[in-house]
Design a protein that fits this description.
140 residues; alpha+beta; Nucleoside Triphosphate Pyrophosphohydrolase; 7 strands
Length: 140
């Protein structure tokens, strides 16, 4: 069987982090998408001929309002969404400036400790990215 549905959807995103302005502890940004009523890392489909890292940073800016400084690449996730295979490449990214404003895709964000982020994430596959990021930051 051939056709467009066999094509893997290419997407990219970031595990967005910062040091808490209050106590300096690590905080991760999760986005709430009302369309799916889920909590996830900021991510989205790549535009035609868009480099994955550029797409990841664009999605962070669009979904969270934050500019981010990219860090190391994190594990790539593969899964099926809407009956199509999907590949999402992720990077660690530190929030450097910006401010959230609700939009049509994302109505809320939360800055959470890694433990709270793991609990809040809707998809179990997203939790491993939290662990990977924490491990990399602790051993940087």
């Amino acid at each position: 069987m051939t056709g467009t549905n066999d094509t893997t959807v290419q997407a990219a995103g970031c595990v967005l982090w910062r040091r808490s302005p209050v106590d300096g502890e690590l905080e991760l940004c999760l986005v709430h998408r009302p369309k799916y009523d889920d909590w996830s890392h900021p991510k989205g489909k790549l535009k035609r001929d868009e480099a994955p890292l550029a797409g990841a940073l664009r999605e962070v800016a669009e979904e969270t309002g934050y500019a981010a400084a990219p860090g190391p690449e994190l594990p790539t996730l593969h899964y099926v969404a809407n009956d199509r295979p999907k590949q999402v490449r992720y990077w660690a990214a530190e929030a450097v400036s910006g401010r959230f404003a609700p939009n049509s895709e994302v109505d809320r964000i939360l800055w959470l400790s890694p433990a709270a982020a793991r609990t809040r994430l809707t998809q179990p596959r997203d939790r491993d990215l939290v662990d990977d990021l924490v491990h990399r930051l602790e051993h940087a």
